[in-house]
Amino acid sequence: MSPEPEGGCKSPMGWMMRLSLLLWLGLGSQILALDFPHRARVVEITDLTHDVKQVRLVLLNPSGFVFKPGQFVFLKVPEEFVQEWNARYQTTHGSVFRPYSFASPPSRLPEFDFIIKHFRAPPGKDVPPGVASTYVHTRLRPQNVLHLSDPTGTLYLGQDSDRPILVVAGGSGAAPFVGLLEYWFEQGMDRTRKIHFFFGVRSRRDLLLHDLFSQWAAKKENFTYTPALSSPREGDDWQGETGYIQLSIDKHVEAPSEAEAYLAGPPIMVKMVTKVLQEKGLPDSRIFFDQILARE
Fold it and tell me: Is 3.40.50.970 the CATH classification of the domain at 12-148?
């Protein structure tokens, strides 16, 4: 069973590098022995943006299935789709699975949500699009049944702190924070701790769940929402902040900051945001991100 990289790399070196990364993260034994004991039926699929879908599922057997807000599961792509893919793109994928975060709180079980971006083929490069995300966006339908691993991951909040919280997401990296934020609101955390959500995307059409986040900011005590567009399109009519999200963090977070930060998004975003947060006085021990998700 090999964790094939999103983007359909044809070279054996590609998935070997991926496996090396997982081993370095201490997840290698988990991946190599990965099982998919859970079944979930698709209830609804909703377009959130031009390339992001929300997938709502319900467990067929909820017994024993528990997760912490911010965790994820591995979703296995059906073998028949992988075989079609290999024939079409001349690839040699074996078992294909990807980590997807829970985008809903545990209180909604046995239903839960994923937020999944379609990774299209990079322009000008001889590689296919992402096999798993293409399956979700082009083949998955309501009533289909998916095979899932046990929940895992460490991007969740400890209960022994009263520090302000900084949440930073890039693009579909917002997925784990949808569930986390809803869970925190359920626990009344916005009444006892300040929470500032920074959300960076390229243009207005990439700004998923903007209305929901804006409603939370209007209604929830001590919750602030700051979206920023790095490359607004003509006609976006955007009056909010522009530039990469680390610029907004630099603008709004005073130094020295006593906050703890939770990040999810592209690796370069995580790197640049971490640099700014360190400059604001946050040690590495107060900057949290799930590295496997940051690299997806």
Answer: no
